[in-house]
């Protein structure tokens, strides 16, 4: 990477081949969107949002490598190079500038010169080959020699009429299409790996998104999902203004469990979520619904169940992950920056019947749905909370009143993990009660003790602590989940199997 020295640095921004091959009118429309997104980056970085659009390149003044990295996260961008701009009139001018800018970098190292003309070549009266040879000859005495196949340093020069750009590398971008050129959709999100990656993939295809979150896990679940989608909004959604629609599904979930057979809960729940997304989509003028489903990943995602679930809406359902394996999805979540947040939220699941239907009949599902009051869903959608993700202050939504960082003496400690996990190790004197049972029974607990709850990551324990607090109990959950509980046990001198 070149470093700042002298005149301001220039980000040389290349757009992807899918944009370049469009018909002229379409390409202009796509590039207008691309430039708007690039200007959004510069504005966010506190820079002048002026973008110069040339042939196959855009140019922007920047001050730091981090700003070039941000420009490389715009959908539609193929790559970005942080470059020094130099005026030139002759081949000698180009060689002199190249020696000045690359001389120190090639010292004692094998190098290659990569030169190319950009734009109207009739206005660039030198050949890229001549420049590569002349500049290579001038740099060779300072170096360990030329190596065109596996150089330690690459000296890039892009030559335009009257100016040239010198840089060391290209930062890869996501390519694809600029956000918005393919219209607007809503994405069902849960905070887990799949839905965040699915949303990212559809944005890369030029779809502007709003997000619909059907909340089954209280404030902590909502905050965890907001954290995940905040990464997508702030890191990737340049040129867009995504909104997050949080729909409280707890009443609907209780209604579902009371009125229908357990083996159909997952299919029925997914159909209700699609109907919620459909209602939001029609309000927002969206043309489709995005989900993170992949065939066969869980019981509700068998091909037979997906067919039944899909008929809950007339809007097209877009499933960009449908053929991916879980490890491929997780790898993508790491690449886009959501992995660490999603791995906490992803383990939460509220409805887990012991024998779920894997090939539900549509007639049976419709009979089960007929037992539900449609007004419950309509009310939940109407009373939803809406967050502007680009303006959201996450700190203001923290649920610190539920969290505790230590376990006080005399507290009643509840371990909400599975029975095998509890049997392998648990905090001293902690009582076992699996999450589903605790959620069903907590109102009958003794109201005198101070309850401290923990689970694998802290999401289920936060949900139960919130429910208990609302019911008048003195309850907290351990911030950080099992990892923090193990640390507290070590600090107390208790052995753990993780040592």
Describe this structure in words.
The chain folds into three domains: 9-172, VC0802-like (2-Layer Sandwich), CATH 3.30.2130.30; 184-397, HUPs (Rossmann fold, 3-Layer(aba) Sandwich), CATH 3.40.50; 400-491, Rhodanese-like domain (Oxidized Rhodanese, domain 1, 3-Layer(aba) Sandwich). 40% of the residues lie in helices and 19% in strands. The protein has helices at residues 17-20, 24-44, 65-71, 91-106, 128-139, 193-204, 218-236, 250-259, 265-284, 303-310, 326-336, 339-345, 362-369, 374-382, 419-424, 435-441, 459-470, 481-491, and strands spanning 9-15, 52-53, 58-62, 77-87, 110-117, 145-146, 153-160, 163-167, 171-172, 184-189, 208-215, 243-248, 289-290, 317-318, 385-388, 403-404, 412-415, 431-432, 450-454, 474-478. The strands form three sheets. Strands 1, 2, 3, 4, 5, 6, 7, 8 and 9 form a nine-stranded mixed beta sheet that branches. A six-stranded mixed beta sheet has the order 14-13-10-11-12-15, sandwiched between helices. Helix 4 crosses helix 5 (128-139), helix 7 (218-236) packs antiparallel against helix 12 and helix 7 (218-236) crosses helix 17 (459-470). It is elongated, with a radius of gyration of 28 Å.
